[in-house]
Amino acid sequence: MKTVVLGSGSWGTALAQTLCDNGQDVIVYGVNEEEVNDINDNHKNAKYFKDVELNKNLKATTDLSVVKDADVILLAVPTIAIEPICREIDPLLTKKVIVVNVAKGFNPKTNERLSEVIRRCISKDHLSSVVSLIGPSHAEEVVIRQLTSIDAISLNNEDAIKIQNLFSNKYMRIYTGNDEIGSELGAAIKNVMAIASGILSGLGYGDNTRAALITRGLQEMIRYGTYFGGKEETFIGLTGVGDLIVTCTSVHSRNFEAGYQIGKENTVENFLKNNKKTVEGVRTAQIVHEVAKKNGIDMPICEEVFEILYGGKEPKDCANDLMIRKLKAEF
Questions:
Q1: CA 45, CA 58: separation in Å to the nearest integer?
Q2: What is the CA angle 22-253-105, rounded to 5?
Q3: d(CA 182, CA 189)
Q4: What angle do CA 305, 308, 313 make, to 5 degrees?
Q5: Which residues are catalytic?
Q6: pLDDT averaged over every residue in the chain
Q7: Taking burial as the number of CB atoms within 10 A of a residue's CB, which of 67, 70, 105, 289 is the most buried?
Q8: What would the pLDDT profile of 182-229 be if each residue is shown by its tens digit?
Q9: Per-residue pLDDT for 276 more than 90?
């Protein structure tokens, strides 16, 4: 099967190399000529992986028409780009493809889950199914072949198994699942929790605080996800607590890094003014706030992150307010 990876950033490059390691037919599409040339000429993507030498068989292109004969298309682009790139490739496709999405979040205009966006923007004649490839993983570790386990989540079990077999090897283990709602919601909301975790670390709080944040954050993910039809057991798996742990504790997490800066300065002002990275949790916090408020879902941690990002509240005040809420039983 031929796979086209759309996106020459860190995650697209790392996953494309995994396919190369597996002897698969794969090519990376990117809009940045420097990144594409670096992959082709130097077997590197130095912008993201300074000292890493990539599989020499990995190739890249700036020609989007490469998708026309693909069997699998992997979307490794920011959440905000999912809809436009799907609309752009749809008329280029000549047969049904499996679309694999690795972005985590919501459509910023419609609040849709990303699998819903893909199904809306790619015609039925061109789409076999959507598979979400998500779980506790950072590109910086996958690209150096660190042991990693993630999920291939799809409503089409046959296609999920195809993706499982396509990517699995001695350092990448893929499980399958069919709880699209729970998995996608968990993978999105954990980015908000990672911002909260970074904020607390920036404020100087330690392990006790982070453990409480992760545990109570998981409860918010379960509460939100099951409200919309997700399965509770999904949240104790790789796309739930697994993804939550790695994103809330890792120096590779952009969301944690953003939160840390905000907490360290006890203000969001400099982050919002100077940030140039994709930090998905920022948009997700606003969407979760709006949806939770509309539906009466109790999300205190997400609410405090929203108040910091959009309401101008000082991080130290949010931490205090979470602690002095009305006392109650844990479950």
A1: 11
A2: 80
A3: 11
A4: 135
A5: 190
A6: 96
A7: 70
A8: 999 999 999 999 999 999 999 999 999 999 999 999 999 999 999 999
A9: no
- Count of residues in the chain: 331
* Burial of residue 172 (number of CB atoms within 10 Å: 0-12, 13-18, 19+): buried
Looking at this protein, which amino acid is placed at residue 45? N
Give dist(CA 24, CA 5) in Å, integer: 12
What per-residue string of b and e applies to 213-244 under the rule 16 or more CB within 10 Å gives b? bbeebbbbbbbbbbeeebbeebbebbbbbbbb
Which amino acid, residue 238? L
Residue 75 reports pLDDT greater than 90: yes
Please check whether residue 234 is in contact with residue 183, taking contact to mean a CB–CB distance below 8 angstroms: yes
Please list, in sequence order, all residues whose beta carbon lies within 8 angstroms of the beta carbon of residue 278, skipping any fewer than 6 positions away. Answer: 78, 254
Closest by alpha carbon to 58, among 74, 77, 39, 45?
39
Residue 278 pLDDT grade (very low, low, confident, very high; cuts 50, 70, 90): confident
What's the rounded mean pLDDT across residues 38-44?
A: 98
Alpha-carbon span 322 to 199, nearest angstrom: 13
Q: Output phi, psi for 184, to 5 deg.
A: -70, -40
Q: How far is CA 321 from CA 149, 215, 229, in A?
A: 37, 18, 30
pTM for this prediction? 0.94
pLDDT band at residue 277 using 50, 70 and 90 as cut-offs: confident
